[in-house]
Design a protein that fits this description.
By secondary structure, this protein is of the alpha/beta class. It has twelve helices and 22 strands. Helix 5 packs across helix 9. The chain binds flavin-adenine dinucleotide.
Length: 415
C-alpha cells in the first residue's frame, strides 16, 4: 500500500472531518472504523450546528431540581442507580466545573472554537455537495416559567458581548415562527444564527466521499489492534496492516477502550441520549429544531420525520437501553405539539462523550509520540467536527493555530 502519513481511528463526524481536513493539507490519510461511516453517535443526534452555544450544561444548582432527578421525576435526566458509584467521581468534577466562575472560563475558552464551527461546516458542505441538508433558520428554546426565562439573563449578556444575535419573544412571537406550537410556554429565545441538518448521517457520508476524491482511503478495522511499529504506529485492517508515523484517535465514546490500556486515563463520562422518529402530521409542519427547556427534550424535522431527542442519562455506556424519559416527557410534548404516530419501532441510543469541564480534548496525546486526540465533544460533536479538523490540521502541520489550543490539551487533567 502507498505511503500513509496519518491513520485516523474512528469515522464519526469528528474523525471523518479530520480526515478530510488533513487530506486538504495534502497528507496521505487512512480513515479506519470497525462499523459504517458516521453510523454511531454522529447519526442519532439532534442535528443542530450550535455555533451560538455559549454556556455548557451545568450540574443542578437548586435542591428542587436535584430532587426531581433523584426521584426519577425529571424528563430531562435519568440515571441507573447501579452506575452511581462509578459515576460519582465524574459527577463531583462536573459539579466543580459548574461553579459560576468555572462555567464562565469554559464559555470563554470554547467561544473561538464555536465561533468558527459553522463556517468550517459550510465550507466542507459546499465542496462535498451537501448543502441541501443545511437549514439556515436557527433554533428556538422555549421557557415555561418567568423564573426559567429570568435565569437566561447571564447568557443573554454574554451573547451581546460575543456579538451573537438572540431574539427573545413571548409565545405569540414564537408561534409566528412555528405556528404548529401551542401556547403552553410563556417565553422563547430564538437563536437565528444556529443552523441545523436534516440528515447528519448523509453529511458525514458526503464528507467521506469528498475525502475519497482527494485520495483518502477508508478501511474497516479494529482500532484496538493499534500498536507501535518502528518509530510509528500500525493498525490491522481488513485489507492488511497500515503503518503511519502519526495516528489520530477520534473514537468518540469508545476512546477510553484504546487509551486506558496505554496508561492514558482521562475523565471521560457518558451522557446517554435517545431518539425516536414520528410521522410528520401534514397539519403540524415544523421547520426548525425546538427545545422545551424545562422538560429537556428537543423536536426537529429530519429526513425520517420528526425526531424527538432526550436529555442526559447517566448510565454505563454499554448498559441496556432504558428509554423512560419518553414516558415522562410525552404529556408535555403532546401539550406543545401535535406529533404523529411512530415512524419506526426503533428507539435509538447513543452516548455523548463528555469531559467534566465540557471542553473536548484536541491535541497531542501525552506520553505517546505521534499520537493525537480529538475526543470528548459532548453535546456538540456534530457542530465541532470540521473546526476540530482544521485546528488539528494546523497543529499537526506546524502552522499557527487559529486559536490558542492550550484550553483543549489533555494535560489539564494530568497536572
Ligand atoms: C441524543 C443526542 C443528541 C445530540 N445532539 C447534538 C446536536 O444537536 N448537535 C451537536 O453538535 N451534537 C449533538 N450530539 C453530540 C454528537 O452527536 C456527538 O458529540 C458526536 O456525534 C461525537 O462524534 P464522534 O465522531 O466523536 O463519535 P462517533 O460518531 O461515535 O464516532 C466514533 C466512531 O468510532 C468507531 N469505533 C469505536 N470503537 C472502534 C474500534 N474499536 N475500532 C474501530 N472503530 C471504532 C465507531 O464505530 C464510530 O464510527 C448529540 C448526541 C446525542 C446522544
Amino acid at each position: 500500500m502507498a505511503r500513509t502519513d496519518v491513520i485516523v481511528l474512528g469515522a464519526g463526524i469528528v474523525g471523518t472531518s479530520i480526515a478530510l481536513q488533513l487530506a486538504k493539507r495534502n497528507m496521505a490519510v487512512a480513515l479506519v472504523d470497525r462499523a459504517g461511516l458516521g453510523e454511531q453517535t454522529s447519526y442519532g443526534n439532534s442535528g443542530v450546528l450550535e455555533g451560538s452555544t455559549i454556556l455548557p450544561p451545568a450540574f443542578p444548582s437548586s435542591l428542587s431540581a436535584l430532587m426531581r432527578v433523584a426521584l426519577k421525576q425529571a424528563s430531562d435526566a435519568n440515571y441507573h442507580m447501579s452506575f452511581l458509584p462509578w459515576a460519582a467521581p465524574w459527577l463531583m468534577k462536573f459539579r466543580a466545573a459548574s461553579r459560576p466562575a468555572a462555567i464562565m472560563e469554559t464559555a470563554r475558552i470554547n467561544r473561538p472554537l464555536f465561533a468558527r464551527a459553522i463556517a468550517e461546516h459550510e465550507a466542507l458542505m459546499l465542496e462535498s455537495g451537501a448543502t441541501q441538508y443545511l437549514r439556515r433558520n436557527g433554533w428556538i428554546k422555549l421557557y415555561r416559567s418567568d423564573a426559567a426565562f429570568a435565569a437566561l439573563r447571564k447568557e443573554l449578556d454574554l451573547a451581546r458581548e460575543f456579538g451573537i444575535v438572540v431574539e427573545t419573544m413571548d409565545a405569540d412571537g414564537a408561534r409566528k415562527l412555528e405556528p404548529s406550537l401551542s401556547s403552553v410556554f410563556r417565553h422563547a429565545a430564538y437563536w437565528p444564527a444556529a443552523v441545523s441538518l436534516s440528515d447528519p448521517l448523509a453529511v458525514t457520508r458526503a464528507y467521506a466521499a469528498r475525502f475519497s476524491t482527494l485520495g483518502g482511503i477508508t478501511l474497516k478495522g479494529d482500532a484496538l489492534s493499534l500498536h507501535r511499529s518502528g518509530s510509528g504506529w500500525r493498525v490491522e485492517t481488513a485489507e492488511g496492516p497500515i503503518d503511519a508515523p502519526e495516528v489520530v484517535v477520534a473514537l468518540g465514546p469508545w476512546a477510553p477502550d484504546l487509551l486506558e490500556p496505554l496508561g492514558l486515563k482521562l475523565p471521560m463520562g457518558f451522557k446517554r441520549g435517545y431518539h425516536r422518529h414520528f410521522k410528520t402530521e401534514e397539519s403540524a409542519p415544523l421547520t426548525r429544531p425546538v427545545v422545551d427547556v424545562y422538560y429537556g427534550y428537543l423536536i426537529t424535522p429530519m429526513r425520517q420525520g420528526i425526531r424527538v431527542t432526550t436529555g442526559a442519562e447517566f448510565a454505563a455506556r454499554d448498559a441496556a437501553p432504558t428509554p423512560v424519559q419518553f414516558d415522562r416527557l410525552r404529556p408535555h410534548l403532546d401539550a406543545l405539539y401535535r406529533i404523529g404516530s411512530r415512524a419506526e419501532d426503533r428507539t435509538w441510543l447513543g452516548a455523548r462523550p463528555c469531559f467534566p469541564d465540557s471542553r473536548p480534548v484536541i491535541g497531542r496525546a501525552p506520553g505517546q509520540k505521534g499520537m493525537w486526540l480529538a475526543i470528548g465533544h459532548a453535546h456538540w460533536g456534530l457542530t465541532l467536527g470540521p473546526v476540530t479538523g482544521r485546528l488539528l490540521g494546523e497543529m499537526m502541520s506546524g502552522e499557527t493555530p487559529f486559536l490558542d489550543p492550550k484550553g483543549f490539551a489533555a494535560e489539564r487533567f494530568l497536572a
